[in-house]
């Protein structure tokens, strides 16, 4: 990164959206740094050290570092790094290990889906088994929601983080809020 | 929903996350520049399209992103087995009762 470069301000497309009914909250999450990281198995240790978060190697798992930086396993050689505070690209620049890192901070928009109806609402459009035995806390996966691709991370028993492409954010928002209303008992 | 076992994710996942990617174990002739038109046609265009067992490539495109191989029955749409790309072709035979036997795993 060029010294003194100012990060462009990020205006999320659905910043002002709010959705709350009994048992369910859908909230747009603040902007964050995101990196699409690709590397082979031999370089996982060095990159974990550089990022200060252990890159998970088990499918569907995630890790969180001391600073709150998150590393999500997406594939055998692919991770999504999320950090609300510090740019992971700066730390990766120091890593000598062979890797590919692409800054996708502006590509994604994140939503928090929480409450006792969170799982049922997501299951309206996500075909994966989101029961806790199959998708426990800290589980994460690239999957689909309706007609779009998303990355889903379970942050708590009743709290999910959903990452989707910026141009799909309105679709994801509308899909989830419609599903929530339709599923209301 | 049809579930497909991804050998990289190590579990069954819904078919919506996958995409078909053509017949498996089609070896590219080497050197390809020296083969004649008939050999190129056979390599590039001609596929088995069997009724029954077929060896295919699939991609877990909305999951881990990996390509892998699968043995599927085109009549029942049942996936008999899946294995990682680059692994040797898994031999499968039908037994007398209409079931499937993985070679090397016979009862
Ligand atoms: Zn997979």
TrEMBL record, chain B:
<dbReference type="Pfam" id="PF04267">
    <property type="entry name" value="SoxD"/>
</dbReference>
<dbReference type="InterPro" id="IPR006279">
    <property type="entry name" value="SoxD"/>
</dbReference>
<protein>
    <submittedName>
        <fullName>Sarcosine oxidase subunit delta</fullName>
    </submittedName>
</protein>
